[in-house]
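DM from R.C. (forwarded with permission)

"hey, sorry to bug you on a friday — could you get me a structure for this? deadline for the figure draft is monday and I only need the backbone to look sensible"
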Amino acid sequence: MSTYKNLIGKDVNFLTTDPDNAQAEGQIWYNSTSNVFKNAIVSSAWSSGASVNNARRGGAASGTLTAGLAFGGRIPPGTNVADTEEYNGTGWAAGGNLGTARYNLASATNAPQTASLAFGSAASPDTTTEEYNGSSWTAGGALNTGRGFLGGAGIQTAALGFGGYVGGNVNNVEEYDGSSWTAANVFPSSTRQMGGNGLQTAALSTGGTTSGPSISTTVEYDGTNWTSGGAYPQTIIDVRLAGIQTDTLAFGGSPPPSKTTLTTNYDGTSWTVNPASMATPRTAHFGGGTSSAAFAASGLTGGPPPVSTPFTEEFNRSINAITAAAFSSGGTMNTARRYLSGFGLRTAGVAVAGYITTNSSAATEEYNGSSWTNGGNLGTARYSLAACGIETAGLAFGGNPSDKTESEEYNGSSWSEGNNLNTGRGELGGAGTQTAALAFGGGEGGTPADNTEEYNGTSWANQPNGLNVARRGEVGGAGIQTAALAFGGGYPGPSLGGNTEEYDGSSWTTGGTLNTARASVAGSSNGTQTAAFACGGSSTTTIANVESYDGTSWSTRPSLGTAKKIAGGFATASDVVVAGGRTSTTVNTATTEQFNEETTALNIKTITTS
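My reply, with the result:
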């Protein structure tokens, strides 16, 4: 008789605690603490990811879940874009723009982020091909037949384009060798809006439309000929595929007139419905990755009329259960207010001052990670101030009205007067500690300032090198006195709201630009120059958008639950807290949101006899 060890190659272990690593896959163990048999099972699930910076539909994608690429598309009702965005598995960051703005183009779906290919377009009978090197696009060889709504597969040096639309559906097939396109055996029927993936010599096409309704047809390409594969579970257009010809994941699309969350798998012969469905029905979306780790982003959702939304979802097939990174509700402040400042850590944070109804506030509240309690009041009521430090050694300085110069120190229970700033101002940024602080930017009599001052625990000293770009409008700040970060802000123009500068203790240099320019931003005050958050703020409207900085560039992170501006932000980039502020509908809010990083844990199942 075969034993479990003979069949699986592992013993049934006797454990007091459950294992916490991949070695548990396929293993059965007896937990002597709970007196049950258990095992770790593989499961499939979609989870939320960070939103794209520019919501659109009809773009193309390639790459993997942790190194994805999305490019082109259209912003309804009719603006074609050249935007390229790169995904690192955490957030989206701006890449180099396409040379030609276009939509309903195709890609070499299995190409990596650093060597992608874009071709065709529905904007015109477009023959344009472009190659991406990880930072910029350059012209490649032109298609022989310009068209849009076509399918794509392969890699940059061995790509495949098939079907499409140019004055009508076409059956053209072309192969790319890295420099030029050549005609290949035609597609079985004139078709557009199919999903495609795989390699030039082992490609897959699913769905689409011929001369009327959508179809469920699947066809396979072997590098020479097209042959029929298993029928898709429903008729569909604009479905997205990830993986290879014999191991494909398909998701979303439109069985007209609706959109679907359906997820399916293809094994090279037939399709099976995956038990995991996307949270948001979508079509004409970005999609890429493998059959076990894929991304779906933006596209058309909702309606009628349909709209482009920025949301991203991630698919994982793993023995780990994944809890996506997200903001969650924290404790409610005792006093609703806006134009406040914050400092400290998530479980020992402080919110100070602000604007309540029609008056400046001196109120201080302390946060323990779940609830707020009142602390000692500031000596000088104010708003639009800056702050830094920790709960037991904090510093608050500047502010409005009337360009305050006052600087005050907090010891965890009360404030005491410190020496004044040399230049009074509000709407400024701050960073550092109580004994080594930095004040920068702000407004002097309403005029944007570039002033930089350093505090040594006793007095403030003007620094000869100010910000490169003068700014006010609640400038974001993070880091320490010798490695600080200034970002966002605004006025006199919105173009300033995307600017980032890094301070090395003597001078400021330009850093990566925010993807969404904004003023009135809440930052992770105790973040670092290489790990900071910019939360919410004011762009053309009050926004919920959140971005993180890695020392070089900004990328999106999960958004706030509620759009807000002129809020107080504190803690680090991994656990930032955003308190108070103003929402789109509420002048002053007392709500708190706090960030939770993605977590993974083994998907452990108790074995029962029922």
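R.C.: lifesaver. The chain has one helix and 62 strands.
me: no worries. The helical segments are 4-8.
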